C-alpha cells in the first residue's frame, strides 16, 4: 500500500514536470525570438528611415524603366518637374506623365545628375539610401549657404499701428476718458515699450508680436467706433504735415547749431591767446623782433601770405610748409592778423621759430589806407558772420597794396595743411592770367560748385556780363601775379562789384563769389593734385587722393581744431602740433 502511494506520487511529479516543460519552454523560446526580432526591426527602421522617404520615387522610376522597354514614345529633351509652374501638363493623367518621364528622358536626367555629382546612384536600394543621404546633406548646405535677408516688415506694420492708434486718439476730445481711449493709450505705451530700438524683425520679442495682435484687435474696435474713413485720411494727412514741419524745423536748428559751432573758438584757444599776450608784454622791446627782416621784399624768394587770427592754425600752415620744403631758407611767410591777436601770434613764433625760413607778423590795423577803402563798406554788410565781414577775409583783394614790392605771392588759407614742396609753383606758366587756382567745376566731385549756386543770374546785369557755365575755382591755395594784377586794376573791379552787391542781392555772402567775378577770365587752372578740398565736411574724399595732394584744405565748418571736426581727417592737421608744449598743456589743448 505504501509502495503504491509512492509510485503514484512519482508519476504525478513526472507528469507535472513534463507538463511544465511542454508549456513554459516554448514560451521562453518565443520571447527570446521576439526580443531579437524587435531589436533588429527597430535598428533597421532607424537606419532606413531616410530611404523610406524616397522609396516610392525609386520604385516608380524602376517601373517606368521597365515599361520603357515596351515601346514608349521618346520624350522631349526638356523635362518638367511635377508641380512646376512651367509645366503645362502637370495636372494631366498618369499616361501623359509617363510620356514625360520615359526611358530616354529618365536616363538622360540621371546621366546629367551623375555628371554633376558622381556619387548619386539610383540602380540599387543601397544607392537610393546613399542618394537620399547626400540629397539631404546638399539641401541642408544650400539652405545654410543662402544669405539670410534682413526684413523689417513687422517693424513697419507695428509702427503703422501706432500711427493709426494716435490718429484715432486725435478724434476724441483731449479730456476724453472713455474706455476705448484709455485702451488705445495703454496699447500704444505697451507696443512702443515692447518694440524699443528694434530695427529688424529678428530683434522683436514674442511679447512684441503678441502686443501687436492685441493692438490690431483694439484698432478694429476703434474703426467700428469711428467708421468715417475720409475723416481718418484727413487726420493722417494733418499728422504727416505736422511731422514734416517738425522735421524741417529740427534740420534747420541742427544746421544753425553746426554753423554756430563752426564760428566759435574753443576755450583752450582763448586761454592760449591770453597767456601768450601776457608773456609777450613782459618781453623787452628788442626781444620782440624777428630775425632776417631784410628778406621781406626780396623778389627772388618764395613768398607766402596767411591772413588769420587763429594762432595754432597759422602755426600748422607755417610748420607744414617749411617741413616739406626742399629749400626752407628761401621761404618768407607774411602773417597778417588783427591787433587783438598780434601779441599772441608774435610770441608764438618767437617761441617756435620757423627754422631757416623768415617770418613777418603784421596787424591789419597797420594798413591805414584799408580803413578808407573797405571799413566804410563793411558797415553796410548785413551778415552777422565774422568770416564774411572780417577785414582779414577781404584783405586778399588788396594784395598788391599790402605787398607793393612783390610781383608774385602764394596765398594760403589758415585751414590748409601743406604736404609737398611748393617751390615749383613759381615756375608755372600763368598764360598772362592773374590768378592760378584749382577748378571746382567737375560735376560729381566732392567740391563741385557752379556760379549760379552763389550768384544771382536772374539779374540782367549779371546775366549780361557773366556766363553761368564758366568753370569755378577755389580759394585756399592761390598763386597771384601781382604785377599783372596792378596793370588790370582788379582791386577797383572788386570794389565796384562789392558796392553793387550791397545795393541789391547779387550773390550770397562771402568772398568766394566776389572772387569769381573779380578774376573772371583772369584765372588759369592748376593741376588738381596741387590742392584738394573737402576735409571740413563729409565729402567722401578718398585717402589716396588726400595723400597725393600737395595741399589739403578743411573747407567747411568742421575744422580740425573743433570738436565737430571729422576725426578721420584730424590726423593730417594734428601731427604738426606739439601737444606736449607746456602752454598747450596748461590750456588743456589735447589731440
Q: What is the distance, rounded to the nearest whole angstrom, between the alpha carbons of the first and last residues?
A: 128 Å
The number of helical elements comes to 23
Count all strands and give the number. Answer: 10
Q: Please summarize the sheet with the most strands.
A: 7 strands, mixed
Query: Could you name the ranges where pLDDT drops below 50 across 5 or more consecutive residues?
Result: 36-130, 141-148
Shape: elongated
- Rounded to the nearest angstrom, the radius of gyration is 45 Å
Q: Kindly name the structural category.
A: alpha/beta
How are the strands of the largest sheet arranged?
3-2-1-4-7-6-8
Notes on the structure:
By secondary structure, the chain is an alpha/beta fold. Helices cover 53% and strands 8% of the residues. It is built from 23 helices and ten strands. It has a seven-stranded mixed sheet. The chain has a three-stranded mixed sheet with strand order 5-10-9. The radius of gyration is 45 Å and the shape is elongated. Residues 36-130 and 141-148 have low confidence and may be disordered.
Which features would summarize this protein structure in a list?
seven-stranded mixed β-sheet
Architecture blueprint of SSEs:
Elements: H1 2-47, H2 49-68, H3 94-100, H4 103-116, H5 125-145, H6 153-171, H7 179-195, H8 206-225, H9 229-263, H10 267-280, E1 302-307, H11 311-323, E2 331-337, H12 342-351, E3 358-363, H13 368-378, H14 386-389, H15 391-394, H16 399-402, E4 408-412, E5 416-418, E6 435-438, H17 460-465, E7 477-481, H18 482-488, H19 490-503, H20 512-518, E8 523-526, E9 531-532, H21 543-548, E10 551-553, H22 567-574, H23 582-586
Parallel strand pairs: 1-2, 1-4, 2-3, 6-8, 9-10
Antiparallel strand pairs: 4-7, 5-10, 6-7
Helix pairs in contact: 2-5, 6-7, 6-8, 6-9, 7-8, 10-12, 19-20
